[in-house]
Amino acid sequence: MTETKHILRRMAACLALLSVMTTAAAGDGDSPLDRRIRMEAQKGTVYRLLKEVSVQSGFMFIYDSRTVDNDRAASISGGEYTLRDAIRIITRKPALQIDVTGNHILLRPPAGSEPQTDTDERPADRNGENHRVIHGSLHDLETKEPVVYATVSLLNTSVGTVSNQHGEFRLVIPDSLRHPVVRFSHIGYESRETDASLLAGQTVDFPLEPKVIPLQEVEVRRVNPIREISEMLRRRDENYPSAPTCLTAFYREGIEHRRKPIDLSESVLEIYKTGYRSDASGDHVKLIRKRRITHVQAGDTILPKMKSGIHSCLILDIVKELPDFIVPGDESLYDYAHEEVSAIDNRLVNVISFRQKPQTEEPLFSGELYIENSRKALEEIRFEVNPEYVDKATNLFIDRKAHNLKLSLRKAAYIVSYKPLHPHSPYYVSHVRGDILFRVRKKGHIFSTPLHFWFEMVTCRIDTVGVHPVPRHERLSPNRIFAETVHAYDRDFWENFNIILPEEKLKETIIHSLSEVIIQEQ
Question: pTM of the prediction?
């Protein structure tokens, strides 16, 4: 595959890419669990009835999914109940331990019957520091759909990760951090913050509440899209770091054929990034950990390879590598519109769409820019090759192919997000994802099959002090085929690094590969 920078420059005419909560009045008892709430007679899942208790009481629930089954059928008769009684009736667990901490209600199994877990603590790393690990998933409070690519981070630190395509996450927390608070955030949702100690040893399913912006807020804040983008660019120097930084990042890339994973490479990288007054050519990458899992079966005749995935992640740092669609001018090939006002971490975000002009028939881009309203910083960008002309861009994404194969590009989509460490800090690149899909047909065959290339990088730690370039002899060439990079395999592979959890089909491939010892010990 051709590197993304080259694609962006050749395309686009020489472009290189809210429920209001009420607090019930206190009852006669001293415990919050003795507060009384009124419940209507109803049936539903445990999840839906506990959600009603949450609305009535103002408390949010934390519980291990192995202790309380969200999907089990439940019912409750109409009347007044204490919080304690309502919870036990709904869950049908009279011995359930119920504790209140702040605005959270913790549901635990009876003493001595906690579910076994190996996620609470991890052995010390090579520097002698112990760590705790929390697992869980995030979903939409109303639809129960997974919240994909949500940020899971420790408040006021650079430690974090993102949820995967099933909303699942895994966060490693160093014991050296005192009283860590975990924040869950995503554009369009109310952020949630929870004391990390409440999550120890549990697998928790967290609901995120959609953030509703009042209509009058939208009307008052209607903006000129061109002016908004221009202001974002003007304030780039103050919103993004001018000094070099060092990112510890988790990177993975994969290839799927016929919707089955056939190649997966995962790694931990150290990335030296120059300030945002420079382009990505001065960024260096050092490989810390790597493993490759292959699942190519005998008889497979299509052996695809992906080139320059890491380089693509560097180039997709849009704030550094400004493409034409983010630099509107008199001769711009794009139309812009202010679509809506959204929010992330209680910050209003203006959503600006861009589409190629109707008279332009070459394959350009379409997408949305999410620009923070106060600081005018780019928080996220989602874009893709215009679906109307995507097939015309096929050759831009192919380095070379066998003469007996016909490939047709079906989709090329990207997501890039930025996050500040605290309200007044610079923004740093947080997450990059690219998905390139083809249909491939062999000569003489009638039917084609899907071929999917993807790459993803998440920043897990940011260092700004004592930052130095990667020594030349330790630098990884980001333009090469990363899957074929030779690196000694470490059986204690991930140590205490934060990673993106694999989706189910990737898990299956990994388990299958482990059973067949296909992990390459290079």
Answer: 0.74
